[in-house]
Amino acid sequence: MSLGQIETKFIGSKMQETILKHLVLFGMPIPKGKIETVKELKQGKGGTKPNIFEEDKQRLISLIENFDTSINQNPTYKHPAFGRMTKHQWGRLVYQHTDYHLSQFGE
Questions:
Q1: Concatenated DSSP letters for 1-70?
Q2: Torsion 20-83-94-99 (CA) sign
Q3: Does residue 62 fall inside a structural domain?
Q4: Are 46 and 39 in contact (CB under 8 A)?
């Protein structure tokens, strides 16, 4: 989504675009299990389905390694709740989201 490979519909509000975005990214911990995934990213609907674990892991590593280059080439993608975000904001959100999921594996 952050690289424009999956388009999502904006479902946010002005409050989410301004105040909540900054609180979530830089002020408070992300509320675990409280946020529903948008339909475009849900497995089986628009998101990627689990495949072979090692292949999925390598794809994730590649996306992370190429994030900086990819986002520089396509800097205008919007978040479904937070709207337009800077490269720094996307980087912070990708870090938080990835860290959350890795912690589920004990990493």
A1: -TTSSS-------HHIIIIIHHHHHHTS---TT-SPPPGGGSBTTTBPPP--HHHHHHHHHHHHHTHHHH
A2: positive
A3: yes
A4: yes
* Residue 9: inside a domain: no
Cα separation, 98 vs 96, whole angstroms: 6
The count of structural domains within the chain is: 1
User: CA–CA separation, 100 vs 107, rounded Å?
Assistant: 10
Is 2 inside a domain boundary?
no
pTM for this entry:
0.78
Q: What is the pLDDT of residues 23-72, one digit of tens each?
A: 989 888 776 766 778 888 777 766 667 778 888 889 889 988 888 888 88
Whether 6 has a pLDDT exceeding 70, the answer reads: yes
